[in-house]
Every structure is written in structure tokens, then in C-alpha cells.
Amino acid sequence: MANTRKTILFIVEGHSDKKALEYIIRKIYSNYKGIEFRVTDGDISSNETVTIENVEDKIYRIIFDFMEDKKLKRSNIFQVIQIFDTDGTYIPENAIISGENKKIEYTETKIVCKDVEKVKTRNIQKSNIMNHLLGQNEIKGFPYKMYYMSCNLDHALYNQQNLDDALKGEMADKFYERFIGKEEMFIDYLKTDVVNGVPDSFLASWRFIKEELHSLERHTNFHIFFQDNPLPGI
User: Fold this and answer.
1) Which of 77, 72, 64 is nearest to 1 (CA)?
2) Closest by alpha carbon to 179, among 41, 20, 12?
3) If DSSP codes are grouped into helix, strand and coil, which group holds residue 95?
């Protein structure tokens, strides 16, 4: 990160994700005035209307709407960072098992769901879209990079799976409050509590999460963002 007049746009899946991360990252890079967040309101990679053919258009629309809202030019965008939940996307199909609850339940060893075939189909779609985006260095000319929280942000940051929506917001508040005044410790927290064996190489970190049951386990490669943008390198 070099030009303090440039904007880094973080795209996350939910408002509680934004709440958990935005304050901390802005404080870590306090000399950099261009940290912004936008929310996709759900998992864009498992949305049934999203395909490999149109996913870049969907992401571009988020970027475009952000620029319109902030009255920015294309040249004002330094980088777009998107953070995905893995949701067990890459696990073997035999780790998806039948259960009675309509709501999908995640553990670190299996997905329990009422409609096994639907989850299998979702995983194929989600993995195809994520693999496609992983091969992109830009979206419609905007520098682009993607990172993951596994099996989702709640699991990665709070070590809690299957939180309901009401608790997501409450946990997000408690999480960022935990780092007030010591925001740089968030990076150490990722490394000591969340990375859990993920390689420090970006491409190797993605190979890791696709193996075995890793996309259900508690992991992240978001530490690599800070590794690639070291303090005080702003």
C-alpha cells in the first residue's frame, strides 16, 4: 500500500463480518485513510443466480455502486479484497450426511443437512466459482485478491459454529471491542489461534484449504494480507 489517496475496498458476506473487521483494520492502518467495506448480503458464491459467467459482473456491480456512492473514480481504487467463508465447500461428499433439521449444521468433521443432494450441488457451484475467482488477478480492471475464513468468519474469529443471526452481531461487537487500543494484536491472534497450519504462501494456503476436511476446520489465510502489506508500510 503506497498512495494514501487510494482506496482498498474489502467485500465481506454479512454486516456482522463488517462490524467485526472494519474498525480493527482501519486502526491497524490508521495512517491510511482509504479502508472501506461493502457487504454482499449473503454468500455470492453459493447464490443460485450466480455463475462462473456472471460472477465477475456481480462483483463489479458492488465496486461500481461503491464508487458511485463515494463519488470516486476508477483510478481511486488501489485494490479489492474479498473475504469468503469456506462452508465446507471442498470436503469429500461422504462427509455430507443426512439430518432432520432444515438448517444446515456444520462441525469440523461433517455437514449435517436435510437435503444432502442440495448441499452437494451447492458445494460444486461454490467451489467452481471460488476456483474461478482465485484465477483472477483483477475484476474488470480492478486489482483483486481473495482470502478465506473457515468454515466461516464466526468459526474462524470466535471459534463458534452455527450461530444464529442475533448472536452474530453480539459476537462481532465483543470481538472488535476486545482489540480496542491494541489492534495490531489482531494479526498475532490470527497467527496463533486461527491459521492452524495454513502455509504462509498465498497459493499454497488455497491448496491447503481444498484438502481433506480443512474447509470445515478452523483456518484462515487472511494473515497473508498483513504479511503482504506490512506495518508501517503505508
Assistant:
1) 77
2) 20
3) helix
Instruction: Give pLDDT, residue 135.
Output: 96
Query: What is the CA angle 218-185-81, rounded to 5?
Result: 60
Residue 173 has pLDDT above 70, yes or no: yes
CB neighbours of 200 closer than 8 A, spacing ≥ 6?
A: 223, 224, 227
pLDDT digits (tens, 9 = 90+) for 33-55: 799 999 998 899 989 899 999 99
Q: What is the pLDDT of residue 232?
A: 58
- Do residues 25 and 10 make contact, with C-beta atoms less than 8 angstroms apart? yes
User: Average pLDDT, stretch 165-174?
Assistant: 94
Dihedral of CA atoms 13, 16, 22, 28 in degrees, nearest 10, equals -110
Question: Which residue type occupies 96?
Answer: I
Helix (H, G, I), strand (E, B) or coil at 45: coil
Cβ partners under 8 Å of residue 189, min gap 6: 179
Tell me which H or E stretch contains 130: helix 116-134
* Residue 165 CA: distances (Å) to CA of 96, 154, 158, 162, 169: 23, 11, 14, 9, 7
Over the stretch 182-194, which tens digit does the pLDDT of each residue have?
999 999 999 999 9
Cβ(146)–Cβ(84) under 8 Å?
yes
Q: Return the pLDDT at 2.
A: 47
